[in-house]
Design brief:
This is alpha-1,2-Mannosidase. This protein is an alpha+beta fold. It is about 40% helix and about 10% strand.
Length: about 575
């Protein structure tokens, strides 16, 4: 982390945010906290290897482990309701958990096991199988895992592969990418949700997909194009993303599900959770990874709309994309990624507020239920499960490294202790079927090793990231930020706290988000100046909030709504009263 002298203003470029040079910082933790971090790091490493070794013993080379019965499930094919007995007799799974574990092995310093795993995959993995898979899941888990591992394996600085590595993982990734392309052959360019790896899109395939399903492909497929020189993968993902963006409402909101043939919305209600979550995530991360300003402009509009129409205090409900009216007052566990995303754009205060609410629900049950009813303050009657999801750990990781607040170390410790107490079994880590009874379910998802353990480990030991600049995909696979991949690097801004930009005719106030800088929340302010409280916050022209016209009023820090000038001559949210 970069050092700062007391009272010295400092602004951090968005590009540097992802390498953990966040907007706020503090002095290093004292020796007691340093010792606690080492202790917790070792506990997380033990968790990872307990899960990994049981998978290798009882489930490999199949997809995922069933820890209670010490058996396996080929979940990648089951995503398409394809029964195991319908597969070829020589089908032995896709080794999904092994692929998902590759970068975690590197982060935890086990280069020997990483090399062994790469060698096995290079010789044995094949996608020439009659299997119907979910495009989104296969993209983020398998393609993302292979691309990330290839980059780690071929980086001479890492010296991970002692023998000869001849880009075998990249070859596998390219083969898989080619098998994805038939899914994009639609009138709209929006891809089918399901594709057969051997035969493409099958007759009678469903045309319904989700916003995440067609809007969260650009990182993995874009990286594949940059590595292979074949533009087809990035073009297909970008065409789908642009079509999806054109379908937004006049409020810059999106629905949850749509028809890929007609481009019409099916479900108009949405939020920041299931079916939509990674769409927002990939807009900002694609901007960081590829340098296109179009991604940032899309994210800015979408983020402001979320803050305006979904946020209620520290919570986020769901709303109708056409009217902005609230539809469902509920928390979903996937929403817990949002504070981490807010940290990446510098909205640390808002991130902290929401994170504490998510953690309060975790403390209430011991884990985070899949769905929690905000209006009744209770768990959803049918979605009571916890499948070892990583989102709360992910946001805790980002917030700790943004603030160095030891509270987040305590949160991480609580998460680790809960996982060991409630979900650890002899054969691995089991999901929770019902958070009210802590009844276990016989499934250890691959993302437990790809994300949950990884983010907890990095919370306590981020040495892997020292001097490096990575974007983590929605499945936790690291992709390096490389200047060679950028069409144009994001521009640097060095504004003062009074965030003005010059136009030819006048001085116009601008938000931190529009300038792509972190909000100045900790500066020594001059007399009459107001602190910038969030990325959308634009302060009023005068410190006493007096005004003569609306143009002298700013944007509210919490709701991101424009303030207006009252008849009495004061700025406020008068239009909402």
């Amino acid at each position: 982390m970069p050092s700062r002298r007391s009272g010295t203003p400092a602004f951090v470029l968005l590009l540097l945010v992802i390498s953990l040079s966040f907007c706020t910082s503090s002095s290093e933790l004292d020796s007691r906290w340093a010792a606690k971090k080492l202790e917790m790091r070792d506990k997380v490493r033990e968790m990872f290897y307990h899960a990994y070794e049981n998978y290798m013993t009882y489930a490999f080379p199949h997809d995922e482990l069933k820890p209670l019965t010490k058996s396996y499930t080929d979940s990648l094919s089951e995503l398409g309701n394809l029964k195991l007995e319908h597969l070829p007799t020589d089908y032995s799974g896709s080794a999904l958990t092994l692929i998902e574990s590759l970068s975690s092995l590197v982060i935890m310093g086990n280069n020997t096991e990483f090399e062994r795993a790469v060698g096995w995959l290079s010789k044995n993995l094949s996608f020439d199988v009659d299997a119907r898979v979910n495009l989104f899941e296969c993209n983020i888990r398998v393609l993302g895992g292979l691309v990330s591992a290839h980059i780690l394996a071929s980086d001479s600085k890492n010296r991970l592969i002692q023998g000869s590595y001849d880009n075998e993982l990249l070859g596998l990734a390219e083969d898989l990418g080619r098998r994805f392309l038939p899914a994009f052959d639609t009138p709209t360019g929006l891809p089918y949700a399901w594709v057969n790896l051997k035969y493409g899109v099958m007759e009678g395939e469903t045309t319904e997909t989700s916003t995440s399903g067609c809007g969260s492909l650009i990182l993995e497929m874009g990286a594949l194009s940059r590595l292979t020189g074949d533009p087809r993968y990035e073009f297909a993902a970008l065409r789908a993303l642009r079509k999806l963006w054109s379908m937004r409402s006049s409020l810059n909101l999106f629905g949850t599900t749509l028809d890929v043939m007609t481009g019409e919305w099916i479900e108009h209600s949405s939020g920041i959770g299931a079916g939509v979550d990674s769409f927002y995530e990939y807009l900002v991360k694609a901007h960081i990874l590829f340098g296109k300003d179009d991604y940032w402009r899309m994210f800015q509009s979408a983020y402001l709309a979320v803050q305006k129409y979904f946020r209620h205090g520290s919570w986020y409900h769901e709303a109708d994309m056409r009217s902005g009216r609230a539809t469902y007052w509920q928390l979903t566990s996937l929403q817990a990624f949002w504070p981490g995303l807010q940290v990446l754009v510098g909205d640390v205060r808002a991130a902290n507020s929401s994170h504490r609410e998510f953690f309060s629900v975790w403390e209430k049950y011991g884990v985070l239920p899949e769905r929690y009813l905000l209006d009744y303050q209770t768990v959803h009657p049918t979605e009571k499960y916890y499948p070892l999801r990583p989102e709360l750990a992910e946001s805790t990781f980002y917030l700790y490294h943004a603030t160095k607040d030891p509270f987040y170390i305590e949160v991480g410790e609580a998460i680790v202790n809960s996982l060991n107490f409630y979900t650890k079994v002899e054969g691995g880590f089991a999901s929770i079927r019902d958070v009210t009874t802590m009844q276990r379910e016989d499934h250890q998802h691959s993302f437990f090793l790809a994300e949950t353990c990884k983010y907890l480990y990095l919370l306590f030991d981020d040495s892997f990231l020292a001097g490096r600049n990575y974007v983590f995909t929605t499945e936790g696979h690291p992709l390096p930020v490389l200047s060679d991949w950028h069409d144009r690097l994001p521009e640097a801004y060095i504004p003062s706290n009074w965030t003005y930009v010059k136009s030819r005719m006048s001085m116009e106030r601008a938000s931190a988000m529009s300038l792509q800088v972190c909000p100045a929340t900790s500066l020594n302010l001059g007399e009459g100046q107001q602190a910038i409280e969030s990325v959308c916050h634009v302060v009023d022209a005068r410190g006493d909030h007096r005004c003569l016209r609306d143009e002298e009023c700013g944007v509210d820090a919490t709701s991101c709504r424009s303030r207006s000038c009252s008849i009495a001559g004061y700025c406020g949210l008068w239009l909402l009263v």
